[in-house]
């Protein structure tokens, strides 16, 4: 063992200590590790910084943007609504529903993207049902990784394993060759999480979540505009498109309220729907070319002032001159050059027509106007305060575009039409270019802490290879296990890969250990396929630390997990997965028994 190997092992030990003890944030630890490798001469600066341009770092940044596009177009919300309905109010039922769904989504998509997409869904579900978010996010993240074992194209490690098997002179794997193992592992993972729920930490989640500031039940009026895409389509279709947090209060046609119209009745241009909507729905309605907020359609041309038009919220102050007067009487459009687009009231009834509503102390008005006019309103004694509107507009009309971008991205990456990093990067750019998500929101979606963490950990793997430490470990393993029974060797290959993948990527681990697996199989006179597959499985589904899988890094903060949480919960699961993987591989390719008895 030379000096560079000794120095690297010391740096590795120090990094693992900081990661496990959490004396510093994980991204800070990653940067200190990177600097230590450069200062000690283990790596040159170019190699140390290569993590920032690496495929995993680029993919992680891109999937944040793609997931942001899915959320901005309402797709995530739709999936969330289905999951919420199916999950009910039970923690065990939520886990039983979420894990198979996430695993299925991960079988043909990148598991990090699925994790990023499901994270806000489960956070909202936990808040709505009074559940602990930390008991939902870890099962979901583990299911995303388990789902990558369902098809050959789900993880780079399996594609590399297939290539290695073919180069050894053996017939390669088909796209569903590993599916029997994957299905078994998903079932085992779900059952384990249901039985071992008591091991999961019970924490509230990220305290920085501002969801408690968001209000629902805004009263507003919705106009079906001339030439609307909703014209002649039944109301039920509109209700389905706008989601669960949209309730019809009344229906005006030709200026008269109709009580004979139902969900199956067709909408007609000029119809006015009196509704209660969530903040997100209210913010989204003005962006739908077939719909508009009635007040904006009638008085929007009176809005003057400087700056881009926006929604704000204003609270009616105690003793305000507005109290007891109707919105029609106040004529905000003429007096303040703003439009009242919605009204929220904590208690009490609100007139069906927004214009007839008489204001009360504490009423919250949703105003549409320009910043220069809001400056004047903020100083008016009639309002207690002006605050930003909490709703986030959903670009629902672009949902098909977002799905098309996602499908094209997955197709390009899965078929290797483009390198995975480039495919996901193009997908992220396409989300912005097609206006599924605006550029400002796209940048906000990227969690820089996670990006830095991944970029900083990757040089550890490079240093392991450059110093010859990886080769030294591989040679030692070859001498130890030569001549062992096949099942024992399969377990050893899985276990070594499970340990190395905590530092290296799954692809690097497979590349490093794959040739050893081939050599061991040939020395035993057995097919190479089960040994290489077990090595790849160990690289993909070992849940020992949060740094072993990028998806686990995404949930680290929102779930308020600690480093040892993953070891306590993931170690028993990894041992169980190792046994199942080795046994199933022996059954599939070595004619072993399917049942252990």
Overview of this protein structure:
This is Di/tricarboxylate transporter. The protein contains 26 helices and 9 strands. With 597 residues, it is an alpha+beta fold. Among the domains are: 71-199; 218-386, Regulator of K+ conductance, C-terminal domain (Alpha-Beta Plaits); 398-445. A 5-stranded antiparallel beta sheet has the order 3-2-4-1-5. It has a 4-stranded antiparallel beta sheet with strand order 7-8-6-9. Strand 2 (246-253) and strand 3 (256-257) form a beta hairpin. Helix 4 crosses helix 7. Mean pLDDT is 80; it is low at 206-214.
What's the CATH class label of the domain at 218-386? Answer: Alpha Beta
Extract low-pLDDT stretches.
206-214
What composes the largest sheet?
A: 5 strands, antiparallel
CATH architecture of the domain at 218-386: 2-Layer Sandwich
- Describe the global form: elongated
Rg to the nearest angstrom?
28 Å
Mean pLDDT: 80
Structural category is: alpha+beta
The quaternary state of the protein chains shown equals single chain
CATH homologous superfamily assignment of the domain at 218-386: Regulator of K+ conductance, C-terminal domain
GO molecular function, one term: monoatomic cation transmembrane transporter activity
Transmembrane segments: 28-45, 57-75, 95-119, 140-161, 173-195, 401-434, 446-464, 476-504, 524-545, 566-589
Organism: Aerolutibacter ruishenii
Membrane topology: Multi-pass membrane protein
Question: In summary, what is this structure?
Answer:
This is Di/tricarboxylate transporter. The protein is built from 26 helices and nine strands. It has 597 residues and is an alpha+beta fold.
